[in-house]
Amino acid sequence: MGDVHEQYELPKTNISRLIKQSLPEGVVVQKEAKQAIAKAAKIWILYATACSNDYCLNCNRTTISGNDVLNAMDELEYNQFIEPLKETIEQYKKEQAN
Q1: How far apart are the first and last CA of the chain?
Q2: Is the sign of the CA dihedral 4, 5, 10, 12 positive or negative?
Q3: Per-residue model confidence as pLDDT tens digits over 2-43
Q4: How many other C-beta atoms can be found within 10 angstroms of the C-beta atom of residue 88?
Q5: Mean pLDDT across 70-98
Q6: Strands (E), the chain
Q7: What is the rounded distance in angstroms from the CA atom of residue 73 to the CA atom of residue 68?
Q8: Cβ density class 8-19: b for 16+ within 10 Å, e for less
Q9: DSSP state of 51
Q10: What is the rounded CA–CA span in Å between residue 41 and residue 21?
């Protein structure tokens, strides 16, 4: 059995779709580049989750909240994500209330 992180793989179809949607039409991305982007995304997700969990544990909780993720983004200096994430969290709360 490989490294524990090797068991977590992002769906290749979703990765390909995201890459295609984020680039101008006609841009071709090699398979190895897609794999590298998927690996980088996986590492980033694991890192952001671990940082969010640290905030959660520091508050003596076992459930990661949206605010934990926002705090992690700030600590990781991904400030450009904070406002869009706040909007996403608010939209989610509205949908759950209905």
Answers
A1: 44
A2: negative
A3: 555 567 788 999 999 999 999 999 999 999 999 999 999 999
A4: 13
A5: 94
A6: none
A7: 9
A8: eeeeeeebeeeb
A9: H
A10: 16
Per this entry, what is the length of the chain?
A: 98
Place of tokens 């779709």: 17
Residues in contact with 76: Cβ distance below 8 Å, sequence separation at least 6, in sequence order: 47, 48, 51
Spatial separation of the C-alpha atoms in residues 79 and 93, rounded to whole Å: 22
The 8-class DSSP code of residue 6 comes to G
pTM: 0.79
pLDDT higher than 60, residue 86: yes
pLDDT at 1: 43
The CA–CA distances, whole Å, from 52 to 4, 10, 28, 36 equal: 19, 20, 35, 24
